[in-house]
Amino acid sequence: MRAAAQDKEFARTGLVALAVATVLFSLSVGVALYRAKEQLQLETMSQRVSVWFSSQALVELHRLQSALHLGDPERPRDWRERVQERHEILLSRLKLLTETNEETSDALHRQADRVHEMIRAVEALDPDIAAFDPADRALAARIAAALGRVDDDLVRLNLLLHHERADLLTRARENGQQLTVILGLCLLGLMVSVGLLIALLRRGEQRAVQAEETLRGLVDALPVAVVAFDGAGGLLLANGAARDLYKLDGGGAPRGPFDGGAPSWLHADAVATQASGRPLPPEEREVVDADGRRRSLVVAAAPVLTTRVGVERVVSVGLDVTDRREADARIRHMALHDALTGLPNRRFLIERLKEALEARDARSLVAVHCLNLARFRTVNDSLGHGAGDALLLEAAARIGGVLRPGDTLARLGGDEFAVVQPGLVGKAEAEAAAARLVQALAAPFRLAGCTVHSAASVGTALAPLHGLGPETLLQRAGIALDRAKEKGGGGVEMFSAEQEAWLVDRQRLEEDLRAALATRAFALHYQPKFRLRDGVVTGCEALIRWRHPERGWVPPSDFVPVAEEAGLIHDLTRFVLHEATGQSTRWSAAGLALPVAVNLSATHFATGQVLPLIREAIGATRADPSLLEAEVTEGVFLEEAENAIACFEELRRMGMRLALDDFGIGYSSLGYLRDLRFDAIKLDRGFVAGVAEPGPSREIVDAVVRLAHGLSARVVAEGVETEAQLVALRDLGCDDVQGFLLGRPLPPAELTEMLRAA
Ligand code: C2E
Ligand code: MG
Ligand code: MG
Questions:
Q1: CATH: 3.30.450.40, 3.40.50.1460, 3.20.20.450, 3.40.50.720. Which one for 515-757?
Q2: Using a 6 Å cutoff on CB, does residue 743 contact ligand 1?
Q3: In the sheet where 283-288 sits, what is the strand order?
Q4: pLDDT for residue 194
Q5: 748 lines ligand 1 (CB under 6 A)
């Protein structure tokens, strides 16, 4: 910017100086011309004939005077003739003075009368001259006297003319000197003008050179590959980026014939542009640069100088888009892959599935396996997220290990994976593959120093048997997976129409459940618990009952899990708690003071919402917390165990009792028994069923009774249906029993009646 301003200033000053010099030069040329003309005049004047004529007249006068006196007396005739001749010459010389056109001679001008006088005086001598006789002395004296007067005048005139000429010569000399000076000045002005002009041109030239250098430097430093070609396809210029990207010779801008080491399309593009005279549309090109890296370029060629002859300059511009392409690829990868495992995500899987379905031939099958990893949340919660991540990575690796090259494994999210297997020949092959997946994940995982068993469930759907669209197949494999999980996990389920019917049924059930909650269409039945020792009723368990308008009685084991999954369990528990605590208060008021146990779903403890619900119910019904018992299954320790423990402690502080339900069939770790004290441990019906006969069930019941007593907890046997079981349980030291043998779940009024009757 500053240089440009300086340039402008310089150019302006230069132009002003040039203008002044030119004016001066023109002026001096004018003056010189004028002076030169004057000089010419002066010189002409100084060489005028009048001086010569007057001098000649004077000479002739003197010759006449001499002729008057000098002659051969012997030959008087010749003497007279010579005098007459001289007289005539004198007269003609004097007349010449009047005939000159020299107007500029001031002196002659002023003396014109005198000249005429002299002429007249000389003419007046004519008779005397004609009569001249050397012997006539008087005559001669008269002539001489007259001539003497003319002589005086003529001398004066001659003197005047000589002075005038001398003046003219002096003036001419001075004028000449001035002319020299003026011409010198002229020359100087000219030289200054020319010098300035040269300086300006030089400066302009320098600027042009600098501008070209700057431009070249700029082009050289551009992060865009710029290559210029001449009309014959010869290389004119290649900037730094072009030299690197196209591996053109390094060091300076190469000129001359095109370097054959560069990519061939570069030259071909230039030739094509030259031939067509039109720009080539940008095209993506790949090159290996001077450092051996693969680069992506967007290259365009265009004619930049077209003359009558044709296209004389073509420029090719290549923009390095490698970084952008890599970023695009990264973004695409991120959009289609799971960040943790690097596996394809659901979107990518759908794409691959689509491709596999399109490529499928009439006889082959495409399998979609949905896979769920059990215990993922437990691992995350108990061993930390690092261990959870490690479990997923290890699982992904194991699954990958049993797949064929054309199969695609994806992580759908959380602990769910999916596999697409194209080109299967039959259903059996798909089942075998699903079994291999389960088996791959059956072996224990070593995570954070712990051994974890994470059985996987797999649901499989096949194209074309179960659908032809990717979404449908994935959804149906998901239904099969739900079914597999429903069946207890660790197994394989192939999709079937019944499953779909089951799903539809389940969805209907969910809707009905929602409606039932709104109308409070539930009831609680209470099943009594008896002390084995003396048969005294020690309490009762509240069990929810739902009479469906069409289905009739729906068992809680059918609808409670649905309520849990549909997010309805909160409202369901609120209903149960209000009913149970209300009944407890009523029994207390009736003097029965019967402890009531309520089943609390494990999902409540994960969300921590159960305490407010209990407080709300107790507050509303004024129930006595010490007559309330919470029954939880081991499942609470699978999810958010710390939350659950904190909740239990709070319940205990409130005065409530805790029972561990369905003991022995859930979580295999006994660690939580160390952390948490239970008032009662309820033996699962499965063990009770076999307790009458010697065998594992009996051994387990025996061990559980000892364990519970060791932890100061009572043992309650569930599902006692026979006397034999009752006897066996008494023998093993069981504390309480609950079962159809002694009392079925009953509506509260009936239980009250039964208790009153007892
Ligand atoms: P649970 O807590 O283990 O309840 C005992 C279940 O055993 C009850 O089934 C009961 O009717 C049944 N039962 C009792 N004695 C016998 C017997 O001698 N033989 C047989 N075969 N069964 C017997 P129910 O009422 O169908 O409940 C099933 C499960 O549903 C319950 O198991 C409990 O886990 C859940 N449940 C029931 N009511 C509720 C509730 O209000 N809230 C929650 N969250 N779960 C509930
Ligand atoms: Mg129970
Ligand atoms: Mg139970």
A1: 3.20.20.450
A2: no
A3: 235-238, 224-230, 311-320, 294-306, 283-288
A4: 59
A5: no
